[in-house]
Amino acid sequence: VEQVKETYGLPDSTFQIIRERLQINACAIKKININTADAKELGCHPYIGRNIGNAIVRFREQHGPYNTIENLKQIVLITPEIFQKIVHYLAVQ
Q1: CA–CA separation, 30 vs 32, rounded Å?
Q2: CA distance 59 to 25
Q3: Which of 25, 37, 53, 61 is spaced 20 to 30 Å from 71 by Cα?
Q4: Residues in contact with 91: Cβ distance below 8 Å, sequence separation at least 6, in sequence order
C-alpha cells in the first residue's frame, strides 16, 4: 500500500484519503525467478531497472545460482532500501 504513495503526480493528501480503501492481493503478484530471468526481464521492473537487472545476472553468472533472495544483498548496487522494495517481487526456484 505504501508503494502507491510513490505514484507520480499523486498528492499526499489524496493518498491519505484513499489509503484505508487500498488492499493488496499477494497472490496476484507475479514473482520473477532470479535464477532464470534475463537482464531485460529484470530491468523492466520499476524498482530494479537496467543497471540492477544487469548486476543480478552478472552476479549469478560469476557465483552460480542464487540459493536465497538474501544473496542479493551481496550486490553493491542493492542498498537495504532497494532490497526492501524488490524482495516481494522476486523468487528463487
Answers
A1: 7
A2: 31
A3: 25
A4: 31, 32, 33, 34, 69
Query: In this predicted model, what pLDDT tens digit does every residue of 20-42 receive, in sequence order?
Result: 999 888 788 889 999 999 999 99
| DSSP secondary structure letter of residue 13 | H
Q: What span, in angstroms and rounded, lies between the C-alpha atoms of 11 and 26?
A: 25
Please name every residue paired with 9 in a beta bridge, in sequence order, or none if there are none.
none
pLDDT digits (tens, 9 = 90+) for 69-83: 999 999 999 999 999
SS (H, E, C) 31-86: CEECCCCCHHHHHCCCCCHHHHHHHHHHHHHHHCCCCCHHHHHHCCCCCHHHHHHH
CA atoms of 11 and 16, how far apart (whole Å) = 9
User: d(Cα 74, Cα 55) in Å, to the nearest integer?
Assistant: 11
Mapping DSSP to helix (H, G, I), strand (E, B) and coil, where does residue 91 land? strand
